[in-house]
Design brief:
Blueprint: E1 2-4, H1 7-20, H2 25-45, E2 52-57, H3 61-75, E3 79-84, H4 92-100, E4 104-105, H5 112-117, E5 121-125, H6 140-148, E6 152-156, E7 178-182, H7 187-190, H8 194-198, E8 200-204, E9 218-220, H9 223-229, E10 244-248, H10 255-265, E11 272-276, H11 280-286, E12 291-293, E13 305-308, H12 318-323, E14 328-330, H13 340-344, E15 350-352, H14 356-363, H15 367-372, H16 374-385, E16 388-391, E17 397-399, E18 407-409, H17 422-435, H18 440-459, H19 466-482
Parallel strand pairs: 2-3, 2-5, 3-4, 5-6, 6-7, 7-8, 9-18, 10-11, 10-13, 11-12, 13-14, 14-15, 15-16
Antiparallel strand pairs: 1-9, 16-17, 17-18
Helix pairs in contact: 2-3, 3-4, 9-19, 10-11, 10-17, 14-16, 17-18, 17-19, 18-19
Bound molecules: ligand NPW and potassium ion.
């Protein structure tokens, strides 16, 4: 499991740890880890000795980390030059270490842009967790020059300019090839758009784990976590004990959505799929194992979870499903005009699965606001609806209405998933996991994980259809179980 803590939590833990350690110990640990990554990257491009390293140094400890790491690189024979953005406030100990190790700080006679253009590696120590509100104007030209050079750009802790706590990028930020963070991930390492700015992220252990709270703010499941959650039939299981998932989807206009949602549902571990709606013929033609019923859902027979909404158009069904006493997943057309009171009144779990546009409509804000602030949006939706919410997108988030549950971030997403019908597959799959007995947050995060993995494997760098994603689910499940 990858976990992330907010800046406030990190600062509290850092103070507690610092009280027990000699002065500057944490920064030395951080800088040593940073320097080791830089050495590794320089070796891959040639060698450390004689390489040209430029440090972008801001006014705080983030710059201090860069300066100490620069000192270590200078001791190994790299030519290290520091661009001090606030010369009078640069970290004094770090600067002394750099100068004492043979590095230099650029004076007025050197043009930082020439030096950056010739660099092999740039270390971004402008801001870390103390940064707010995007890069300041004086930092923008050097950040752009770093990106425009042929150098590999390594961000210290976070790419400067991103918001550590939300993953938002307000204004300009530096795009790194790699980010070296310390003690724990922060939300910005896991959530787009900041995640994308960070490149490959490495975590350096500085001993913070022992003082961090046991429950993080965010968590991203990995294969082993998902494998533990997957439903596994036992000797006593029959199709009803494994769970029946009811799919209320499709319409005369969109029969395909019904077929895709059923395709997803058949791969989620439920023992049977009951389709309810007007697209029964199309469903049966493709999946003869499906139990079909024209509706309404209340008359269709017992299920352990409902999926309602994909391609539904104006067909009814949402109210029936919400009135049931089993878990309900609401997606797509089911989300239009969704009655928050009806959702809040439910005693069984409800899982809403909007994409950014649908989330924006539910919240009454522009879509861009949801895309830029995904964490805030998903939390607001859980609060308004009293439901678990899976917010689809470049980093899919799953949040439960219980604020003590960490928000789950899906790490397997791929841009190839932005394809018509893939959301219908996800709904069916996740509903099936609900019917097998998984709690809503687990069903949502396991569903998103398998769905992303299936898309990645099916795509392998080329476009995929929603059908390909559904067909890839069995392989994704196997990969998770076998740990591949
Ligand atoms: N926590 C830990 O466990 C450990 C932390 N460590 C390291 O310390 C880092 C945190 O250091 P920090 O607190 O000194 O803040 P930091 O990010 O350097 O910012 C400094 C100053 O920048 C300024 N500034 C703000 N916004 C800006 C902007 N947009 N553009 C430009 N400037 C801006 C603002 O100063 P102002 O100019 O407003 O006075 C702010 O105070 C952390 O990320 C990690 O690298 C490790 O060494 C050890 C373990
Ligand atoms: K940085």
């Amino acid at each position: 499991m990858r976990i992330a803590y907010s800046v406030e939590t990190v600062r509290t833990a850092e103070r507690e740890l610092m009280d027990r350690l000699p002065d500057g110990a944490l920064m030395r640990r951080a800088a040593a880890g940073l320097a080791a990554v830089c050495v590794d990257l320089l070796r891959r491009r040639g060698r450390v000795y004689g390489s040209r390293v430029v440090l972008l140094v801001g006014s705080g400890d983030n710059g201090g980390d860069a300066l100490y790491a620069g000192a270590a690189l200078a001791r190994r024979g790299a030519g290290v030059a520091a661009v001090l953005l606030a010369p009078e406030r640069a970290h004094a100990g770090g600067l002394a270490a750099l100068l004492g190790s043979g590095g230099r700080s650029l004076d007025n006679s050197s043009d930082p842009f020439d030096v950056l253009a010739a660099a092999d590696l740039v270390v971004d120590g402008i801001t870390g967790i103390g940064g707010r509100g995007g890069l300041r104007p004086d930092a923008v030209p050097v950040a752009r020059a770093a990106r425009g050079s042929g150098a590999v750009v390594v961000a210290v802790d976070l790419p400067s300019g991103v918001e550590a706590d939300s993953g938002e990028v307000v204004g300009e930020a530096l795009r790194a090839d790699a980010t070296v963070t310390f003690g724990t991930y922060k939300p910005g390492h896991l959530i787009d758009p900041a995640r994308e700015y960070a490149g490959a992220t490495r975590l350096v252990d500085i001993g913070l784990g022992s003082v961090l709270p046991s429950v993080p703010e965010l968590e991203a499941l990995q294969h082993a976590d998902v494998a533990r959650l997957l439903p596994v039939p036992t000797g006593e299981s029959d199709k009803y004990r494994r769970g029946v998932v009811g799919v209320v989807a499709g319409s005369a206009r969109y029969p395909g959505a019904a077929v895709l949602a059923v395709a997803g549902a058949l791969h989620g571990g439920a023992g049977a799929v009951r389709y309810v709606g007007p697209a029964g013929d199309a469903v049966i033609a493709r999946f003869p194992e499906t139990l079909v019923h024209a509706g309404p859902p209340a008359k269709a027979g017992r299920v352990q979870a409902w999926v309602v909404g994909p391609g539904l158009g104006d067909e009814p069904g949402v109210r029936d499903a919400l009135a049931s006493d089993v878990p309900v997943l609401v997606d797509a057309d089911g989300l239009r005009g969704l009655d928050a009171g009806a959702v809040r009144a439910r005693t069984a779990p409800t899982l809403l699965t909007p994409h950014a546009g649908e989330a924006a409509a539910l919240l009454g804000v522009p879509r861009g606001e949801v895309e830029a602030g995904r964490l805030a949006a998903v939390r607001e939706l859980t609060a308004r609806y009293g439901a678990t919410v899976l917010l689809k997108g470049s980093t899919t988030l799953v949040a439960s209405p219980d604020l003590s549950d960490p928000v789950r971030v899906n790490p397997t997403g791929t841009p190839w998933l932005a394809t018509a019908g893939s959301g219908d597959v996800l709904s069916g799959l996740t509903g099936s996991l609900l019917a097998s007995g998984l709690p809503a947050r687990d069903a949502g995060s396991v569903g998103a994980y398998l769905h992303g993995l299936a898309a990645r494997t099916a795509a392998r760098g080329a476009p995929v259809s929603a059908e390909d994603v559904a067909a890839g689910l069995r392989g994704a499940w196997r990969d998770v179980v076998s740990g591949e």
